[in-house]
Amino acid sequence: MSELNRGLIEARDIGVVFGSGSAKVQAVRNVDLTVQPGEFVSLIGPSGCGKSSLLNIAAGFVRPTSGALTVDGVPVTGPGSDRGVVFQQYSLFPWLSVRKNVEFGLRMAGVAKSQRESSARTLLGLAGLLAFENHYPDQLSGGMKQRIGIVRALATSPQVLLMDEPFGALDTQTRTVMQEILTNMWQRFRISVLFITHDIDESVFLSDRIYVMTSRPGRIKAEITVPLPRPRTAAMTQTPAFVDLVNRLKTLIREESLSAMGSELQSGGVSGFGIDVGPEGVGKLI
Ligand SMILES: Nc1ncnc2c1ncn2[C@@H]1O[C@H](COP(=O)(O)OP(=O)(O)OP(=O)(O)O)[C@@H](O)[C@H]1O
């Protein structure tokens, strides 16, 4: 398989159950999803619908209770350097300098000192952070820390980047800049991205395709191709195509959030809370 054809993520009939007995939680049910090599795909849905569980399965941190997830046809059974992961919490090592943080995965992989230094410097330069290579994480802003997190995840040249609310802790301006930096890095590295966000505008701005999940147990409610050309620009966020799609997605998520709140209220003994839960099937929108 050539480099450009790598990074195919395929999840088939995934189910996730946590706990047992009365503490049993069915987090995810019958989820099929695909990320094509080089594609940017977002996963959105109401809180607690199982987005992080799916991403953690792809990362190899959680095993599915049923079904399988493969990367380039190989079942994921644990973490691996073919998949970079970025979380909302910065998870940098505070006792290591910026460059040593970026080098960490390469050091674990046995890459020679001079080579890992030069790879880390190249990546830090691309992210505009070379001047900070000898700083320590607590000397940096949140946006800078998250840029280092992305650079660190890319350092081992993974085929897949898995991102769980990576910009959730950042202010709106920093978040916008980070979205542009991520888009540039993604285009440069031609890597597959599976991205979780609660920010619907962000999912539309960044993605080729978006999966919308139902409330728990999470299933795929809709799969939507974003009809915007690339490169994406800030001006596009004002276009009718962008605004209409954001509104459609908000409606889909709102239906699910209401249905989740309705079931919680009903299971708590509150009656007369009339909510139409809607059809069970997966809607396919273009
Ligand atoms: N290790 C665990 N043990 C027990 N239950 C868990 C565990 N991890 C997740 N859950 C439960 O599984 C469900 C799905 O959680 P998950 O974090 O995957 O959802 P999410 O969509 O990412 O949520 P959010 O949007 O709020 O971050 C939730 O009800 C959660 O409480």
Automatic annotation (TrEMBL):
It comes from the Bacteria. The keyword Nucleotide-binding applies. Coiled coil: none annotated. Signal peptide: none annotated. It holds the Pfam family ABC_tran. Belongs to the ABC transporter superfamily. This is ABC transporter ATP-binding protein. It comes from Camelimonas fluminis.
